[in-house]
Amino acid sequence: MRDMDRTTATYGTAGETPPTRRDQAARYALLPLRLFLGITFVYAGIDKLTDSTFLAATGPGSLGELMNAVRGTAAVPGLVDLALNDPVAFGYAIALGELAVGLGTLAGLLARVAALGGALISLSLWLTVSWQTEPYYYGNDLVYLMAWLPLVLAGASYWSLDALLRARRRRTV
């Protein structure tokens, strides 16, 4: 293969230069965020699923007790009331949701959907559990919500199952 052909096949048009380090860094810029959020949400889900105290309807450290404590200060008390209808089922739903979001984010499978799920979990926690935090930037749920947004917008373009599936579809077309 001639040099010009190799360049064209690899980088697009003849004479186009290979990506610079800055270009490469930009391509992978969201990867550390994806890894952090994915690992954190997997850990949070497993932590909740293995904590019988958290998954109890009542008692110290239970989700039911936490929801009763934040009921009066939540921005959306209706969300708290929803959790209080069945704290154990709600606890399992949150834990399994965090686990699914974390695994989807790490694998890069339906990455935008997983990130949207993470953003919605973070939003619901911010509007209920950490809403009363003063000043607002001390509450971590708002930071997590903002951290999910770039992944909602961009997805997982590198080192992801989504990228592999896109490449496979391109080859079959």
UniProtKB/TrEMBL annotation:
Keyword Plastid: no
InterPro entries: DoxX
Pfam families, per database record: DoxX (PF07681)
UniProt KW Membrane keyword: yes
Annotated compartments: Membrane
Key words of the record: Membrane, Transmembrane, Transmembrane helix
Domain of life: Bacteria
Membrane topology of the entry: Multi-pass membrane protein
Stretches for region Disordered: 1-20
Bilayer-spanning residue ranges: 28-46, 89-106, 113-131, 143-161
Identification of the protein by name: DoxX family membrane protein
Native species: Streptomyces sanyensis
